[in-house]
Amino acid sequence: MEIAHLIDVASLSNHELFTKVIAEISRCFKSRDKKERPKTWMSIAVQIAVAAAEGQPGCASDWVEQFNVLSSDNDTGNNTNDVNFSEALNRLNAKECYMKRLNNVLGHPSLSLPNNILSVRQAAGLIRGSDLLSKEDNHNDDTVKGIQISVIKLLVKTMPQLGSTSPCDIFLAVQLPLLQSVDRSAFTNGGLSFPSKDSEQEFDYLLGLDCSDLDFDSVAQVGEKRSRSYIQHSKYTHVLEAAHLARKGAVRAQHGAVIVFPSPDDEIQVIGKGWNHDYLMDRAKTNKNKVVLHSECHAIADAIKRHGEDECFNELFPKATIFIVELESDFAYETCHPCPKCDPLLRAVGIMRVFHTTPNGNLTKMELSTPSYELLANENCSLPLKAACDEQGITCKRLDTAIKEAEEEGKE
Question: What residues pair up with 366 in beta bridges, in sequence order?
Fold first, then answer.
C-alpha cells in the first residue's frame, strides 16, 4: 500500500473516514442503473468503512472492489448484517483506530529511506491524526506522546530549517490551534532546535497565543500602541492573525487578510482586516443577489472606515503590506496569491507589497506592478469595493468619482 493513501486515512477522524468510504462507493453507482444497487448497499459500505477505520489498509479503488465482492456474496445468499452508520461509528474503539492508522504510516518501510520525504501537508495531516488520538487519551499515554514526537520528526525532516535556523517556521506550515494540542516536549524531542534563547522565547510566545486575543475589534490608530499581547509583531503574528480571521468565513475558500503599516516609532500596526464572506446586495441598486467579498477587499474597506479615505490613499496604503492566508481544512495552509480581481484592486488603492501562504510552509513575497488608480473604474474592482463600503456603512469619494466617470464615458 502506498504511504500517501495511509497518510490520507490517518489524517481523518473516524466520522470523516466513514463519510469518505461511503461517498467513494456511492460514486460508483452514478454510471449504473439504480436498479443494480443492492438493497443492502449501505450496510455493506458501512462494513467496509469499519474495516478502514480499524486500520485495514486501502484506498478508494480497494473499497469499491471490496464492495463488489461483498455485494456479489450477498446476491448469492450470504446475507450481510444490517449495519447502521451511527451505531457502527459509536461501537468503534476510537483510540485503537487512530493508533492503528498512525502506526500503519510510522511503520511503513519507505520512511526509513533517506530520500523519502513527505510533503509539508502530509506531515501536518499526521499531526492532525495525532491530535485526534490525544483527544481520546487526554494526553496521559506515553505512547501517544511518542507518536507526537514521531510525526514532529517527519515534519522537521520535511522542513530542515525547523531543526536549525528557523523553528518558528512551523507556524507557517501547521495551523496554530493544532500545534497547541501537541505536548510541548514533543517539539524539542521531535527535533526542533532553537539557535538562541530569543528564538525559543518567540516560539513559546507564538505557541501560547490565545486566538480570542487575535480577534481584535478595535484596530489601533497609526502610532497608537496595541494591547500587550500584540507587542511582538512579526510575519508569524500577521499570518496567525489572518488565519484566525479566515476561520470566520462561511464560504468555501477560507481566506483572511491583514494590512500592516510601519509607523514612525517602528511599531508595526494592523490598519485593516478582512475575510472571505458573502454580502447580500440591494436588488434595487444592482441586478446581483449577492457578492463574495474577498479578504483583501474586506480589509481595504475596513481600513478606510477606521482611518479615513484620504489618510489611507495618501499615507497608509502606499507604504502598507498585506498578508493573505488560505486555510487547508483545519491543519495546513494553501497558496493564495491575489486573484485576478484582487490584484488590480490592490493596485488601484496603492497597496503594492503582498505576502501569502503556500502549502510548503513558506511565505511568498510579491511586488505588484505600478499603482493604477484608474483601475477603480473597472467593474471587477468597483463592484466588490462598493459592496464592501456599503457593508461598512461608508462612502469612498474616489470610488464614486471613478464609477461616475466610467458611466459618463460609456454614454459617449
Answer: 354
